Structures are given as structure tokens and as C-alpha cells.
Amino acid sequence: MDILYKIFIDPFMQMGGAPDLLIQVLWEGLVGGVLYALIALGFVLIFKASGVFNFAQGIMVVFAALTLVGLYEKGVPAFLALALTVGVMLLLAYSVERIVLKPLVNQPDIILFMATFGLTYFLIGLGELIFGGSPKQMIASQLYLPKGSIDIPMFGGSVMLQKIDIAAAIIASLMVAGLALFFQYTRIGRALRAVADSHKAALSVGISLEQIWVIVWFAAGIVALATGIMWGARSEVSFALQIIALKALPVLILGGFTSIPGAIVGGLIIGVGEKIGEFYWGPLLGNGIESWLAYMIALAFLLFRPQGLFGEKIIERI
């Protein structure tokens, strides 16, 4: 009975007894969830255009952040380094289309998926060759990202909001909303949806696969850069960031691999769920459950709704 009390009653008693602490945990979960949604958006864009899960999205986050910091360390002013990093991500998108995607058109999806594995290790090697393997500090202050925190009195206590977390949540939310509107209501967005439905049909109506792929990979690169800046400002820039980026996988399972709204909702569910689970139920399991709880939530969704909350349910008749 004691263990049942600790699992099903005590955590909720703690929530009711310290609502200010609950708000603090929810806030941290929401910030993490928005950043997860931003990472997942990069995966969704490429999956919608090519039908392939881009395993390299995680290392793109690291590579973009390392490029920004590396250029600044070479003496390039911060905002010029930011603009040059955007140019590097455009060059990467064009190179991927020319060297990887174009020769593999109409090949099985597993071939393209394995190609993204190769791209991952190529970028790891290139990043270590150019920038080294040691962690670096993000140039947050040079980019005028805020420092410090705000204490808000609430429920007899206080909730501390880090200013960098507020900025990260606002910037990530604006980027997610902007990209969602862009791909939903513009000509490029309609072309993207046509390419996602059928490459051959899109080609038959004059849509350029090469152009769409460059645009989508460039958009994913911009998302990777923004993610690298925000995560790097909260911790540091290192190759370990690619592990955080793979948290997008459970987000995609929850929201659906082809849904931009699904990436947003899935990110929030994972972000809030893992923070609440770690804080209130983590001590029962020896702590550290934040590293695997997201995957357990995703597994539960796979059992009952494998297409995700917003994914399309595919029915095959035999």
C-alpha cells in the first residue's frame, strides 16, 4: 500500500501543497517543449518533402552552432557571423540536394535514410576537423540575448523565470508559427505538399524537386541554427547537443511525422511530461528518468495510436 500511495497520491499532494513549485516545473517543461517542437519541425519539413526521416538533423543543430561560435572566435563580428552561418546552411542544403538527394531520386526510402546516416558522420568529422571537439560557450550576450532571471510572487512563494528561457520560448514560438503559416499558405508550401504526396505527380505539373529540396533543407538548417543558439545559450555548444535533438523522435511519434501542428503539440507534451515525471516521480525510480521517459510516452502512443495525434491513418486493402 505504501508504494501505491507514493505513486498515485503523494505526487498530487505535493502539487497541491506547493502550487508555486508546480508552476515552476510546468514553465521549465513548456520551455523545453517549445524547443523540442522547434527541433521536430526540422524533421517534419524534410520528411514531408522526401518521405525520409533525416537522422542528420541532430548534428545539423551542432554544426550550425559550432559554425556561429567558430566564426566569432576567428574575429568575425557576432551578427556578421550569424549571417555567414545562414549562408553556410544554404550551401549545405544545396550540397545535400546535389550530392546526396539528386542521385538517389526514386530509390527506396531506406537508401535515403542511410544516406542521412552518412551525412551525420561526415558533419561530425568536418566539425571536429574545423572547430575541434571541446565544448564552446554560445555567444549569447554578443547576440543581445538576455541574462538573469525574474522572480514572480505566486501562491505564497515565487516562480523564477530565466530571461534566456523567456527569449527562447518567444523566438521558438514565432519561428514555429511563421514556418507553419509559410508552408500552409504560400505557393512553396503548396508545392511542398504536392511533393510529399507524390514525386512523380509533382514533376508532371512542373514542380522542381531540386528547388523544393533545397528550400526545405535550408529551412531545416535555419531551424537547426535557432535551436543550437537557444540550447547552447542554456548550456554549452558541444556534440552532446545532437542527443538532445534526437528527443524529437518521440515528439514526432506523438504528433505525427507529417504534421506541423503535431510537432508543436507533441513537443509540449514531451517537455511538460518529462519535467513533471522527473520532479514528482523521479525519486521513486532513482532519478534520471528524464533521459528515457519521453521514449516510454512515445511507446505508449505507438501501442494505441501509431500514426500519432495528427498523423494520417493509412488503411491498406488486401
Key attributes of the depicted protein:
318 residues; mainly alpha; two-stranded antiparallel sheet; 4% strand; High-affinity branched-chain amino acid transport system permease protein LivH
Report on the structure:
By secondary structure, the chain is mainly alpha-helical. The chain has one domain. It is 70% helix and 4% strand. It contains 14 helices and two strands; from the N terminus they run H-H-H-H-H-H-E-E-H-H-H-H-H-H-H-H. It has a two-stranded antiparallel ribbon. A hairpin with a 2-residue loop joins strand 1 and strand 2. Helix 7 crosses helix 8 and helix 7 packs antiparallel against helix 10. It is a multi-pass membrane protein. InterPro entries: ABC_transp_permease (IPR001851), BCAA_transport_permease (IPR052157). It is found in: Cell membrane.
Query: Which radius of gyration do the C-alpha atoms yield?
Result: 21 Å
Largest sheet: 2 strands, antiparallel
Helix proportion: over 70%
Counted beta strands? 2
Provide a short characterization of the protein structure.
The chain is mainly alpha-helical and 318 residues long. It is 70% helix and 4% strand. A two-stranded antiparallel sheet has the order 1-2.
